[in-house]
């Protein structure tokens, strides 16, 4: 069951229900370490990254019951403060345990986090923030030990680079610190707002999330509470691309159009007809050939790096020539060589690519190397001429709930095949 067999020449049409945001759910799960009272979190997406996060929390002693995408969490007892290497090295998000464990126990040891290989992905800004608030950090080749002698002390912190992950680490460290922390040049992603909203529900005092300055007044204790995870904006964008590349019509429900303003603007430029309602987005590309668009990724509200590969696919079969610049991660074009195999006319320069649209992609035996790239290759298979095989399929399961089921319902024909099967 480790390859996909994808029939091409499909038009993708219909309705799709968007799941909860992976990138909001992951930090929120780790923030539950900050309280000893019961928490309920709904709209949890069913993904391998989330299962790993739940396993990590359970390995610490936290009790979690999972019913219909709602987690009932009892974090009153934590027996160990160093989760195993075999779990933490699987997900980047495990870095978000460091500050809650430090705050709760005064000491925490975690192994370096894993995640997609899309760049060197340092954690210096997370650690620097913790040091500024008063933590002592000792690093060796494999792990980090953080410790404090007295409660962390609130401070003005200027982030030298906009980082989603480091903003969340510092925000979580400041919740139970003494005094006021100001995070300047903070990341403004909707996921940051969702984490802040969750923490405020538990009694934290955070204002300004979603702007570039976040103010956190330390409180003495957090209590329990209920939170619903926001919809996944990247999953939404990926399904809208599915409609655009196949000249189809797809409506995404249970989503938040406001979180995709820049993505929708670019999709309109391609010629797609877009309509939005309170919680839905419809993209209609029927009977139209898309026009290619230039993209330059940047922190929110700019164009998301997590939508870069899907737009490259769109440009590769659109009319015209385009440039896509990647400004966030230094190694995020590995999927491009696979699209080139399919016939795409793309030149890779340093941090940008030049793409000349062609009428059709051709099915090939493809290898995915990261989460968003793998979703892109699966979509490419749906519209290519012939039968595409995608290998290394564990990637897409990390970030797309029921991806194949949802695509097949829209008209795709994607099946699992075993290793011995060959069509070439
Ligand atoms: C998060 C998202 C990821 C998204 C990215 C940018 C999760 C689980 N992942 O990743 O899907 O693509 O935001 O929107 O939420 N950096 C440093 N030092 C640090 C931290 C980051 O130099 O300590 C750099 C990174 O290498 C990168 C840039 O800052 O060049 C932005 O990274 P960051 O926003 O932190 O991304 P992640 O939180 O890892």
UniProtKB/TrEMBL annotation:
An example Gene Ontology CC term for this record: cytoplasm
UniProt xrefs under Gene3D superfamilies: Enolpyruvate transferase domain
GO molecular function terms listed in the Swiss-Prot or TrEMBL record: UDP-N-acetylglucosamine 1-carboxyvinyltransferase activity
Main subcellular localisation: cytoplasm
Enzymatic reactions: phosphoenolpyruvate + UDP-N-acetyl-alpha-D-glucosamine = UDP-N-acetyl-3-O-(1-carboxyvinyl)-alpha-D-glucosamine + phosphate
Record flagged with keyword Cell division: yes
Residues modified as 2-(S-cysteinyl)pyruvic acid O-phosphothioketal: 116
Keyword tags: Cell cycle, Cell division, Cell shape, Cell wall biogenesis/degradation, Cytoplasm, Peptidoglycan synthesis, Pyruvate, Transferase
Active site (record annotation): 116 (proton donor)
One example of a Gene Ontology biological process annotation: cell wall organization
Domain spans labelled Enolpyruvate transferase: 7-407
Subcellular location: Cytoplasm
Pathway: Cell wall biogenesis; peptidoglycan biosynthesis
SUPFAM superfamilies assigned: EPT/RTPC-like
E.C. designation(s): 2.5.1.7
Binding residues annotated for UDP-N-acetyl-alpha-D-glucosamine, in chain numbering: 92, 161-164, 306, 328
HAMAP family according to UniProt: MurA (MF_00111)
Function of the molecule: Cell wall formation. Adds enolpyruvyl to UDP-N-acetylglucosamine.
Family note: Belongs to the EPSP synthase family. MurA subfamily.
Protein name: UDP-N-acetylglucosamine 1-carboxyvinyltransferase
């Amino acid at each position: 069951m480790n390859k996909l067999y994808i029939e091409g020449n499909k038009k993708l049409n219909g309705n799709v229900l968007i799941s909860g945001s992976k990138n909001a759910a992951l930090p929120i799960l780790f923030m539950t370490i900050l309280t000893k009272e019961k928490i309920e979190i709904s709209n949890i997406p069913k993904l391998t990254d989330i299962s790993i996060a739940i396993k990590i929390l359970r390995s610490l002693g936290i009790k979690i019951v999972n019913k219909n995408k709602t987690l009932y969490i009892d974090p009153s007892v934590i027996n160990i403060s160093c989760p195993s290497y075999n779990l933490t090295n699987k997900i980047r998000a495990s870095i978000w345990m460091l500050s809650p464990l430090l705050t709760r126990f005064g000491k925490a040891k975690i192994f370096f986090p894993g995640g997609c290989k899309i760049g060197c992905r340092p954690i210096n800004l997370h650690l620097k923030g913790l040091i500024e608030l008063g933590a002592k950090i000792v690093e060796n080749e494999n792990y980090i030990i953080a410790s404090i002698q007295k409660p962390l002390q609130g401070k003005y912190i200027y982030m030298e680079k906009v980082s989603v992950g480091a903003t969340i680490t510092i925000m979580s460290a400041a919740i139970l610190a003494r005094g006021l922390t100001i995070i300047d040049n903070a990341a403004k992603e909707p996921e940051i707002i969702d984490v802040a909203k969750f923490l405020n529900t538990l009694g934290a005092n955070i204002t300004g999330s979603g702007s570039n300055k976040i103010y956190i007044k330390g409180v003495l204790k957090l209590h329990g509470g209920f939170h619903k995870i926001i919809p996944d904006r990247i999953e939404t964008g990926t399904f809208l691309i599915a409609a655009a590349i196949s000249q189809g019509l797809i409506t995404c429900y249970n989503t938040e159009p406001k979180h995709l303003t820049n993505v929708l603007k670019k999709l309109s430029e391609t010629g797609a007809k877009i309509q939005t309602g309170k919680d839905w987005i419809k993209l209609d590309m029927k009977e139209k050939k898309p026009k290619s668009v230039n993209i330059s990724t940047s922190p929110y509200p700019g164009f998301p790096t997590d939508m870069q590969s899907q737009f490259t696919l769109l440009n590769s079969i659109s009319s015209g020539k385009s440039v896509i610049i990647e400004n966030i991660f230094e190694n995020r074009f590995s999927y491009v060589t696979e699209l080139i195999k399919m016939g795409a006319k793309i030149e890779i320069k340093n941090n940008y690519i030049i793409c000349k649209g062609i009428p059709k992609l051709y099915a090939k035996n493809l290898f995915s190397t990261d989460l968003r790239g793998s979703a892109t290759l699966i979509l490419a298979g749906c519209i290519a001429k012939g039968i595409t095989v995608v290998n290394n399929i564990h990637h897409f399961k990390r970030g797309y709930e029921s991806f194949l089921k949802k695509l097949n319902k829209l008209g795709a024909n994607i099946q699992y095949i075993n290793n011995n099967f060959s069509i070439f």
